[in-house]
Design brief:
Keywords: Coiled coil. The chain is an all-alpha fold. It is 82% helix and 0% strand.
């Protein structure tokens, strides 16, 4: 049986890491712009990070839906 709780925790870690990468890349872009540097590639990478984050959010929602649709035996008797 798949441990969806572990998958959810892993998805949350991936999201946190992606959000950090985006913040760092935004700072790099801002610094490069302030220095008058070309930011074309930096902005393209930032957009890729954002698209990846959106996919991570979708994956997280899918895990939650799976947990809701197929609760583990431990969760069926809770509450």
């Amino acid at each position: 049986m798949v441990d969806e709780t572990a998958h959810l925790a892993q998805a949350d870690r991936h999201i946190a890491a992606a959000e950090l990468r985006i913040t760092e890349q935004e700072q790099r872009v801002a610094a490069a712009e302030a220095a008058g540097e070309d930011t074309t590639e930096s902005k393209r990478l930032l957009e890729n990070f954002r698209e990846t984050l959106e996919q991570l959010y979708i994956h997280r929602r899918m895990i939650i839906e799976e947990m809701h649709d197929n609760p583990s035996p431990d969760h069926k008797n809770a509450g």
